[in-house]
Amino acid sequence: MSRLTKKPADLLITGGMVLPLPQNSALLSPGAVALQAGRIAAVGDPEAILGEYEAARTIDAAGCLVMPGLVNAHTHAAMTCYRGIADDLPLMDWLNRYIFPAEAKSDGDQVYWSTLLACAEMIRSGTTLFFDMYLFEGRVADAAKEAGVRALVGEVLYDFPSPNYGPIEKGLEYTEALIERWQGDPLIRVAVEPHALYTCSPDLLTRCRALAEKHGAPLAIHLS
């Protein structure tokens, strides 16, 4: 194929070992990937891909593994700022004596910057989608959007007052506002997230389910 008839691509990744994930797919070593408009346009032999596509940017991935991004199915991304605090204690001691008191002094800016740090660490390790449950989740969404990472976020809901929204009625309103704010965004989606069976009453769990069903949103909780 001549240069004039090559297909345009935004990015070409060549020379690395390419690991496709469809069943029975073989490892390509070396392989190449063409990306166009945010999607994978082609995967194959480097010579074939370079002969078919041209792009303004090409990455030489020799010595690297090229694969789909990893997914972290449960995170508290902003808790990077609490890393190492009393992490040798039983759960309830850790929560009640250290984490809940620290979080009571938290604010949206702290959550935003701590989440940006978490996003940088996730990107560096190959994680491109995370499912988050924490406080000030609107700021978590802002940070993920800024970092260009896909995120499913949800404000933690429990029966006692939150440092973010106060009483639980405001928490349900905050969650609904988040769902409406990010509806249709290509990177951010919002879930309804009651904290756990030991911090949420049956009534709250029922109301959370109703809110999730109203908007077709995922529902997440700590089961154990």
Folded structure, characterized:
The protein is an alpha/beta fold and about 220 residues long. It has 2 domains: about 60 residues, Urease, subunit C, domain 1, CATH 2.30.40.10; about 150 residues, TIM Barrel (Alpha-Beta Barrel), CATH 3.20.20. Helices cover about 35% and strands about 25% of the residues. It contains 6 helices and 13 strands. The strands form 4 sheets. Strands 9, 10, 11, 12 and 13 form a 5-stranded parallel β-sheet that branches. It has a 4-stranded mixed β-sheet with strand order 5-4-2-7, covered by helices on one side. A two-stranded parallel ribbon has the order 1-6. Strand 11, helix 5 and strand 12 form a beta-alpha-beta unit. Helix 3 runs parallel beside helix 4. The radius of gyration is 22 Å and the shape is elongated. About 30% of the residues are buried.
Condensed summary:
Helix content is 34%, strand content 25%. The chain contains six helices and 13 strands.
Task: Furnish the topology, listing elements before pairings.
Elements: E1 7-9, E2 11-14, E3 17-18, E4 32-36, E5 39-44, H1 46-52, E6 53-55, E7 58-60, E8 65-66, E9 70-75, H2 91-103, H3 108-124, E10 127-134, H4 137-147, E11 150-157, H5 168-181, E12 188-190, E13 193-194, H6 202-215
